[in-house]
Amino acid sequence: MNLSDRDRAVNWHPYTQMKTADPIIPIVKGHGLYLFDDTGKQYIDAVSSWWVTLHGHAHPYIAQRVSEQLHTLEQVIFAGFTHEPAVQLSENLLKLLPKNQEKVFYSDNGSTAVEVALKMCIQFAFNEGKEKTKILAFKNAYHGDTFGAMSVSGRSAWTQPFGEMLFDVVFIDPPTPENLDELKSIICKHPNEWACFIYEPLVQGAAGMLMHHPEDLSELMRFCRANDILMIQDEVFTGFGRTGKVFAADHLQEQPDIMCFSKGLTGGTMPMGITTASRRIFEAFLSEDNYKTLFHGHSFTANPLACTAALASMEILMREETLAAIEVICKKHQSFSEHLMRHPKVEKVRQTGTILAWEIKNDNRTSYFNEIGKVVYRKFIKRGIIIRPLGNVLYLVPPYCITREELDIVYRNITEVLDELEASQ
Ligand SMILES: *Cc1c(COP(=O)(O)O)cnc(C)c1O
To answer: Residue 45 and residue 190: Cα distance in Å, rounded?
Structure first.
């Protein structure tokens, strides 16, 4: 049996209808921008393997650092003990975050980083003896797949079976200059009842790369601050260079109370989540009263290997050449988006930094249109490019190691696929 068949016999894949799924592609090797399957075919990873791979696959520097760490200290219980990689990573990360972020709490992935943030806010109110349980979030938000994270995410087919069991959340539209007054009035309807406001800053990733402007979000944040509503900024996707700056926070004029990180945190090499908090949040948990403790943790909290991978990845990220490479991607995306806008099959082209998204125009061929994502995905796979549409939204989120020439290859293939769609009408 080949690897695909053996896989099918034993594995259950994420976000996959196993009955109708296309054959699963066995990947045997990764190198920089490329993944290689068991027939030797190479694929350009234009989506950074679900938005995590920052510097390319099997990066030798990260591999070397993790390997050294593996021979030194692979894991230690993080209650009652600490280690150099965790302390160093917290120090390095906090230096890059908004000034008010002072404490780092480790977990294992983006969803857990969000769970921790929500628990911090809800218990913050509890510890202060206040009745604040309402949560504010954006429509179509995506904050993860665990129950708390699902609760603050938009309701969809993904959450439907669990509807009754998710906690109540007030969903508002992302801010625009036109709707800001309306959003404020919704918030004002429940004064002093908000436990927190959670949001993906600038780009709502899984919703289909929906984007809003930093000025509008800053204005909404300013209003939340004035009304004493705690803010959780979920930078699981936007962090570590994706938006063209190191964090989405670098585009904003207001500081959140809590921030969440994962995905690019370790350069896409190891699972890890981080929740950071301001001094005010942290101090609300300091007490002689044991009930005010944050009773949360995971077996692998602050795993030294993952911390080391994150340290190495952040070191590469902050190198001048990497920041310059990010700049190149931003600029090239910008000129390609002008080209895209003129294509008859394309609408709603949008870009934030290294994230470029657009939609395939619906020409009223509805049943076919529902399948358009799959059709397009297969076309790109055939061409050796991994582009995984969200419905009819296509997007690029390339690793920062992609060269100008490789970007041009991707752009050229996109144009050809769009032309094929146009011709097939
Ligand atoms: C992916 C994502 C998450 C969930 O992270 P996982 O590691 O997949 O659990 C949370 N928030 C945002 C904004 C994300 O994009």
So the answer is: 45
Contacts of 148 (CB under 8 A, 6+ apart): 114, 115, 118, 119, 167
Summarised one tens digit per residue, pLDDT across range 176-201 is 999 999 999 999 999 899 999 999 99
Coil/strand/helix, residue 63: helix
Best CA proximity match to 260, nearest among 128, 66, 118? 118
What global pTM score does this model have?
A: 0.97
99 is catalytic: no
64 CA → ligand 1 middle, Å: 27
113 φ, ψ (degrees, to nearest 5):
-60, -35
Q: Which residues line ligand 1 (CB under 6 A)?
A: 109-111, 114, 142-144, 200, 205-206, 234, 236-237, 262-263
pLDDT in tens, 88-112: 999 999 999 999 999 999 999 999 9
- Of 249, 247, 264, 241, the closest CA to residue 321 belongs to 241
pLDDT in tens, 256-287: 999 999 999 999 999 999 999 999 999 999 99
Residue 273 C-alpha to ligand 1 middle, in angstroms? 9
